[in-house]
Amino acid sequence: MLSPGLSRIAAGCILVPGIIQAELLRGAKNAKEVQSLHSVLSSQKYLRVEESFWHRLGYFANQLFLQGINVPLPDAYIALLAIERNIELLHCDRHFDLIAGKTKLKVFKLPG
């Protein structure tokens, strides 16, 4: 049986924050990769944030820092978005494990 996170991936339910889209596109090596990424990203659900999110993000990042967890702001952004939307985060970045250890962030990793 698949975990809830893997089940959503298998069903095509992938949520992509804008910052992830930007990071992926930034890393493209040529125009062909940009086109491929654009094709994939345009089929995903984009997660928007409201203006008040930025204040909550600043507070959240500060609370992490005060607990000894110093992570890049984009990682705090992604973590807070996942926490507030009550969704699991698929990742391969140790920062998210650190955040999950001190918050309500739900994380999962692909087996293997």
Describe the model.
- By secondary structure, the protein is mostly helical.
- 56% of the residues lie in helices and 9% in strands.
- The protein has helices at 4-10, 18-26, 31-41, 53-66, 73-85, 94-102, and strands at 15-17, 45-47, 89-90, 107-108.
- The strands form two sheets. A two-stranded parallel sheet has the order 1-2. Strands 3-4 form a two-stranded parallel ribbon.
- α4 (53-66) crosses α5.
- It is globular and about 45 Å long.
- It starts with a helix and ends with a strand.
Mean pLDDT over all positions: 85
- The percent range for strand residues is 5-15%
Query: What would you report as the Rg, rounded to the nearest angstrom?
Result: 15 Å
CATH architect. name: 3-Layer(aba) Sandwich
In terms of per-residue confidence, which ranges show pLDDT below 50 for 5 or more consecutive residues?
Answer: 5-10
| CATH class call | Alpha Beta
Mass-distribution shape: globular
Would you kindly provide a brief summary of this structure?
The protein is mainly alpha-helical and 112 residues long. The protein is 56% helix and 9% strand. The protein has one domain: Rossmann fold (3-Layer(aba) Sandwich), CATH 3.40.50.
